[in-house]
Design brief:
single chain, 5 helices, elongated, RNA-directed DNA polymerase from mobile element jockey-like, RNA-directed DNA polymerase, nucleotidyltransferase, RNA-directed DNA polymerase activity
């Protein structure tokens, strides 16, 4: 049986790649999951099933927002800057493409 399937793989390699993958899945005995259909757990196991996927996403998002770094006072600093000159604004508007210029200024 497996020998026949291997021969089919060899024959199909000249045909469509999709059919080759399908036959390989039959030989291996498992289906691969689509990128949106499964995730990997922390230990590397593949998670399938809506509930387990949602649990893993919640865990992942929780890890992202669990920030133990010390506070940076970047926003607390007083950045001294010069006022923007009218000539700078005019120059920038002239450099913009026509459609962008009209959209930025509220024209149709």
């Amino acid at each position: 049986m497996a020998q026949q399937q291997m021969q089919r793989i060899d024959q199909q390699q000249n045909n469509k790649q999709h059919m080759v993958c399908k036959t390989i899945e039959e030989v291996v005995g498992r289906k691969t999951c689509s990128p949106s259909g499964c995730l990997k757990a922390k230990n590397g196991d593949i998670i399938m099933g809506k509930e387990k996927l949602l649990e893993r996403w919640a865990e992942y998002i929780g890890e992202l927002f669990d920030d133990d770094r010390k506070d940076h006072d970047v926003m607390k600093r007083n950045f001294a800057c010069l006022p923007i000159l009218e000539d700078e604004v005019r120059s920038t508007i002239r450099k913009m493409k026509t459609r962008k210029r009209h959209a930025q200024m509220g024209s149709p």
